[in-house]
TrEMBL record, chain A:
Gene Ontology cellular component annotations, sorted alphabetically: plasma membrane
Protein species of origin: Rhodovulum kholense
Bilayer topology term: Multi-pass membrane protein
UniProt-listed SUPFAM superfamilies: MetI-like
GO biological process: transmembrane transport
Keywords, ordered alphabetically: Cell membrane, Membrane, Transmembrane, Transmembrane helix, Transport
Protein name: Carbohydrate ABC transporter membrane protein 2 (CUT1 family)
TrEMBL record, chain B:
TM regions (residue ranges): 12-36, 70-89, 96-123, 149-175, 196-218, 259-280
Protein known as: Carbohydrate ABC transporter membrane protein 1 (CUT1 family)
Keyword Transmembrane found: yes
Major location category of this protein: membrane
Keyword Transmembrane helix among UniProt keywords: yes
GO cellular component: plasma membrane
Residues of the ABC transmembrane type-1 domain: 66-277
Length: 280, 290
């Protein structure tokens, strides 16, 4: 704070230090387990089980090579990516008009509908696992990507509606009215003028759909067996007759962190707004 | 903002309605169906009335799981909310370091939940894990697969690791929205650090903190994957929370009737608590907005 010259240095310094200490300690706490995972992924199994060391003595990339060359491993990533992208596209597409309706109009039962949508975000996936399994089996969608994508809509669509509604509220209504006076039809106005205005909101909503679909395991595991099996479920199969393959398990874990870490960077300033459902 | 009354807006909401109805109402009705019927296999069902509900309400297993769940949610809220606020207050206000902190803090939130479990499994094991090895080397008897206390500590620390950043990010966003003039006024009044926190920062964070508590309550109440990977609900039933118990019942033992009755009551509890939070939140927004 440059505009606080009144405080004597002795009073400022300890406070700054305390803040730095808290921050560094917290970040260390967050990063230590991740470091350990990376450390494990670069060791051979013999080294993991045979000795204890803070860094890999016998550096190896074989664990990563195993995953990246074996289709039963890397197809897990491909499957996850496919249903995550499908889910994000579906969620955003249906959520956009709905969010617009909620942000601009009052209509019969709108508040109840809004809360009902939120209740789906609160539904424990465990409650829905079995019925989903039966529903998608009976319509012949079991073990397809679209089944998982649709199932994840259960919590992602409400979330997308909430986030987009929050962002849309910030756009003044005069813009809509001006566009209509200028002779824009609703679809043209929505795509040409309105969507560019809330581009960051769409990005954030897409990020959250991506995120929650990416981290979910219970439903995606229940709804798939072979063809659409997500990486997270593949990981549970590292147990073999010779025990757990810790090195490969760790490497697979590291690889699941990478996509998230890449996209965080782009939305870092909006993460909080997204979690607050657009309400900060 | 003033909203126009327009019932045609329903057409804009229709796609969402259809989609969510397909993926929520149909499965939910299936659950309701099961909860009032009994089966002897081969798709023969018999009307069972409210028996399953009575049985579940009388079963010790359900109450035990609910008790553990409440204790768990209570503990993690009591840790994560104050810690999150503390971290948010300690974050750099702007510049490169603020970005670095934001990105690093968000990292655990984007890790698939079973990988979170795996990370803590690898980190906590007494033979290969940094934490377990160090603790045992220091003479602490720590083994999360056998010790009741160790299992609980691991699951709680894991959740704190996983989700405190969420509270911190929300609180940070709340802090960012405070105009500098407030702080200047406080300085002129020679307000203490505590007074600044109590009368400026806390009220301004109230809204986002409500959201944080709501989200953390909901998600911790549904927690399944992370403890399942780490402890598998054990030792014994020590960390068998509601979802773990439910999945065991429904997919493991295929006890559809009791599982369905359990599901509905479980969902109702979450709905009830969330409704209270939601109402408080909306009222608060109204008071602030107008």
């Amino acid at each position: 704070m440059a505009d606080a010259p009144a405080l004597p240095a002795s009073r400022v310094l300890p406070r700054v230090n305390a803040r730095a200490v808290v921050m560094v300690a917290y970040l260390l706490f967050l990063l230590l387990p991740i470091y350990w995972l990376v450390n494990m992924s670069l060791k051979t199994n013999a080294e993991i089980l045979g000795s204890f060391s803070l860094w890999p003595k016998d550096l190896t990339f074989r664990n990563y090579a195993t995953i990246l060359t074996d289709p039963s491993w890397y197809m897990g990533y491909v499957n996850s990516m496919i249903y995550v992208v499908m889910n994000t596209v579906i969620s955003i597409t249906v959520a956009l008009p709905a969010a617009y309706a909620f942000s601009r109009y009052t209509f019969l039962g709108d508040k109840h509908l809004f809360f009902w949508l939120l209740t789906n975000r609160m539904a424990p996936p465990a409650v829905f696992a079995l019925p989903f399994f039966q529903l998608y089996s009976s319509v012949g969608l079991f073990d397809t990507h679209i089944a998982v994508a649709l199932a994840h809509c259960l919590f992602n669509v409400p979330l997308a509606v909430w986030i987009l509604e929050g962002f849309m509220r910030g756009v003044p209504k005069e813009i809509d009215e001006t566009a209509y006076i200028d002779g824009y039809s609703f679809p043209r106005f929505f795509v040409k003028i309105f969507m560019p205005l809330i581009a960051s909101g769409i990005g954030v909503a897409a990020f959250f759909c991506f995120m929650f679909s990416w981290v979910e395991l219970l439903l995606s595991r229940t709804l798939t067996s072979v063809d659409a099996k997500p990486i997270a479920a593949t990981m549970t199969r590292t147990v073999s007759a010779s025990g757990l393959d810790w090195g490969v398990l760790a490497a697979a874990g590291v690889l699941t962190i990478v996509p998230g870490a890449l996209v965080i960077y782009f939305v870092r300033n909006y993460i909080a707004k997204g979690f607050a459902l657009g309400r900060v | 903002m003033e909203k126009t009354v327009n019932h045609k807006a329903w057409f804009l909401v229709l796609p969402v309605l259809v989609l969510v109805a397909f993926s929520a109402v149909i499965p939910l009705m299936t659950v309701v169906n099961y909860s009032v019927q009994d089966t002897f296999g081969q798709n023969q069902f018999f009307w069972a009335g409210l028996n399953w509900f009575r049985e579940t309400l009388a079963s010790e297993r359900m109450w035990d799981a609910l008790g553990r769940q409440l204790v768990f949610s209570g503990i993690i809220l009591a840790i994560e909310v104050p810690l999150g606020i503390l971290v948010a207050l300690s974050m750099p206000k702007k510049g490169v370091w603020a970005s670095v902190c934001l990105v690093l803090m968000a990292l655990p939130l984007l890790i698939p939940w079973n990988v979170v479990g795996t990370i803590w499994q690898i980190f906590g094991r007494e033979d290969i894990g940094l934490l377990g090895y160090t603790l045992n080397a220091l003479g602490v008897d720590y083994n999360y697969t056998q010790g009741f206390f160790a299992a609980w500590t691991t699951v709680i620390v894991m959740d704190v690791w996983h989700w405190t950043s969420l509270v911190a990010l929300l609180a940070y966003a709340g802090l960012q929205s405070i105009p500098n003039a407030y702080y200047q006024a406080a300085r002129i009044d020679q307000a203490s650090r505590w007074a600044v926190f109590r009368y400026i920062e806390l009220p301004k964070m109230q809204g986002v903190l409500m959201i944080a508590v709501l989200l953390r309550f909901m998600d911790s109440f549904m927690i399944y994957t992370e403890p399942f990977v780490v402890t598998g609900g054990g030792p014994g039933n020590a960390t068998t929370f509601l979802s773990i118990d439910l999945v065991k019942m429904a997919l493991g033992q295929f006890d559809l009737g009791p599982a369905a009755a359990f599901s509905l009551m479980y969902f109702l509890v979450i709905l009830l608590v969330s409704y209270v939070f939601y109402t408080v939140m909306v009222n608060m927004e109204k008071r602030e907005g107008k």
